[in-house]
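Comment on this:
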Amino acid sequence: MFKKILFVIAVLCFWDCSENNLPENCIRASSFSITKALNNPEFNQMRTVNGSAEILGGFQGIIVINAGLGRFIAYDKICPNNDCNSPMEYDQMNRPNILKCTCDNSEYGLGIGIGGAPQTPGFECPAIEYNVVKIGTSIRISNF
C-alpha cells in the first residue's frame, strides 16, 4: 500500500514538469532538428567554457553556449512575450547569463537548470530552451 501511495505522489509531482503548463500567451517551440560540426569556424568562440555562437534556426536565431564538461545549452532569441520584431540580445562579456529583450527590457536567465526563466518581475514566459546533444565532434540542437 505504501508503495502505491508513494508512486501516486511521485506521478503528481512530475505531472507539472512539461511545456504544456506554460501560460497560453507563451510561444511554443516549433519542431526542428539541426546538426552542426563543432570544428566549423563559426564555433571557434564556443570551444571554451561559457563561449557562445549564434546560428540560424528557431524563430529568430539560436544562441548556443558551452556549459563545460562537454555540455551545451541553446536558446531561441525570440522575445518570449512575442512583443518584439528584433531578436533578444546576448552580451557574453558583460552579462553572460542573460538574454535581454530590448523592446520591453525583460531579461531571461541562461544556464544548466535555469531554463530561460524570466528574471524581470511581471514576466512569466521563459525563453525557449532547446535540447543539445553532443555526438562525437558534432552537436544536435532540437526541441525534442
Remarks:
- Confidence is low (pLDDT under 50) at residues 2-19.
- The chain has one helix and nine strands.
- The longest strand covers residues 62-68.
- Residues 117 and 126 are 5 Å apart (CA to CA).
